Amino acid sequence: MSQIKSVIKSSALYTILGFMPAAANFVMVPLLTEYLSTEEYGLLSVSSIFQSFIGVFMILGMDAALSRFYFRYYKKRKLLHALYSTGIIFILLLAVIIFLVLLLFGDFGLQLLFKNDRFHFFDYGLPSFFEAVPTVLYLIMLAYYRNEENVKMYALLSIMSLLAIVSGVLIGVVYLGMGAYGNILGKAVGMCLMTCIYLFFFYWKKPIIFRFKSLKPLLNYGLPFVPYFLLLFANSNLNKWIMEREFSLDELGQYNFAFQLASLCSVFTYAVYNAIGPRVYKLMSEDESGYKNESAIANLLKLFHIIVVFVVVSEIALIAPVTEFIVTNPDYLNILNFVNFLIVMWLVHMYYMLYSIPLMFFNKTKLLPVITLIGFIIGISANFALIPIWGIIGVCASAIIIKFTISIASYWFGKQQKVFHAEYYQLGKNHVLAIIVFASILVSYWLGTQLDKRWFYLINMLPIVVFGIVFLLFFGKDFKTVLNSFRRK
Questions:
Q1: How far apart are alpha carbons 91 and 98 in whole angstroms?
Q2: Full-model pTM
Q3: How many Å apart are CA 118 and CA 123, to the nearest integer?
Q4: I want to staple 358 with a disulfide (CB 3.0 to 4.6 A). Which of 297, 322, 419, 481 is the partner?
């Protein structure tokens, strides 16, 4: 029981801190939907894809390398500072090189990548680039303080990021009235200022160091991650890119808005994973075989599964009334016809997170690019097969299929590599719970197409009601035990 309490407390902490960047977008929803058309929201999606793409080449796996070598040098503070200083300067040098390349070939590349004729490098591309640079450095900073277990600095950076983004958007969109361009420019200026302030204090009383001796191991470790990160980028942005190619900017904007709201699930999902994951790895590493503490590991994975399913059905229950309350532009309310499919995508993604644990622990990470590539190929096929039939619903269904594919692939490779230990995954009842909930979500969607709109809120309550009934039937006794332990304390 103490383990469950610890997980809940840690999850709450990671949720609050991890929610900061997502909170910026959520807090701005009423303003953005009031001042931006759905077409302009589509331009924000294009900007996001562009930033993610150049970010891969700007960081070159440096984030993974710095996190890896942190634990080698964390007791040697001068060497650790030299390592991070070298990484930061190298990223800034890469940013300069990428900027020069984009000045020459940026518009040509954007014309190849995107269909629309509004997003050009010398208007939307420039502020997008200058938003990407501090964002990359921000992720490096967060990882550093997470490894340091310095919660105060981690929280401070998260809050500074929130303030930078919100103030930038308020000035660019509301005060200056510059639409999507003002949104991107405002965030770029805000994030750049925040990063400059941070770097000033990071180097306060510390030298600015760049050592080729430190750079070489970072590149040796980080560069092999680049193909994987490119595949991950392609997989993560595939549906948005296809939306941009096959649909209008207006429809892309609606999809982007729905995706942002649905991604609130990911904040809670990864918060719980960040709390449970280290405990699982620690239990697995207590003996050479990694098969010790099977019951404890199985209980943690069961708990993770139940929490994620609960988060999914909770957001489905709340999404319609909350969206209609905070959104004033009726053009955005069309997302209520398909947003539930994007929310349930995170239920399927949970299985990838579960089944990739043995691959990570037993150093089978070379298989991750293969798994991602399989998902990418299936995703392309699914999109082009389903879009002519179901339109935007087909895009959402393809997103679920991608997540399902990489989950199955992770499970299969784990079995083939003989690192999948069945005793860890005593999830029989959990699987039944997930299947029944998934079926109830499909039923609620079908009912929504058949009944009057006034029943919409009630229909969306069906999955959480089903979850509650099945949960009490399967896990009622365990739940009572946990409640009693809290009461006793």
A1: 10
A2: 0.86
A3: 9
A4: 419
